[in-house]
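Page 42, continued from yesterday. The earlier attempt failed because a stray header line got pasted into the input along with the sequence. Redoing it now with the clean sequence only.
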Amino acid sequence: MDFIVLIGIVFVLLAMSGAFVVQQQSCAVIERFGKFHRIAYPGLHFKIPSIDRILTRLSLRINQLNVSVETKTKDNVFVNVMVSVQYQVLSDKVFEACYTLQDPENQIKAFVFDLVRAQVPKLILDDVFSKKDDIANAVKSELEDPMEEFGYGIIKTLVTDINPDKNVKAAMNEINTAQRLRIAANEKGEADKILKIKQAEAEAESSILHGKGIAGQRQAIIEGLGQSVEEFVKQIPGTQASHVMDMVLMIQYIDTLKEIGGSSKSNVVFVPHSPGNVGDISDQIRETIFSAKNCE
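This time it went through. Structure tokens are written below.
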């Protein structure tokens, strides 16, 4: 009876030492006598003590590997490109993932180094920033097939940072600032040009209207004087129109002198200055009146 109990205790101990648990989203590779035996997926499992052993446990979750690559662009600028590779062990290729690659992370880094240094030297620095998604897609497409053979799936690759030298950054900022200042100067020049054009157009229209106003004023004065002379001649028979015009002009001449003399700040001088010159002015006005009548 004691022997049976002893055997039972030994069996329980052996069973407990052979039991193991695999966590969710992971798997365990079991070897028997140093040879691959099976893959244990999440749950409770048993192995034969001293015969079976757990070689390794692999996570089936998505991992991220950040790779910093220093390379040179087409315009001879050295940059550090940070590439993030998201990968995972394929559940149907656990054997390949376990036994093919000794160091999968270094293998991925080697691929990324080679691919980035093949893509970036084809581009100038500005294009590296604008085409970073193209670089990431090129790395992913070139990395997928070989890594799948090794049991790893490439989920996504991202170019998360492009870091040129500090002096290059400062030069790029200065170029950007100069370009923006040039654009601002061009816009300001165009605005000033438009303002000057509009101002010139306004002055031209103002001059035209001013000239029309002066012409209309003179025409009205001529017509008014003509009517006044005709009425004066009709009311006083025997009076000549030239005499009436001389009288009107003399009155206007005296009124003008009065207005000029009434201002203490006046600096207007008529040369020559004598009432006899009114006759010359009257002759000019008469010629203007006759010319206006002939034009009508």
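Notes: The chain has a mean pLDDT of 79.
Reminder to self: strip header lines before submitting.
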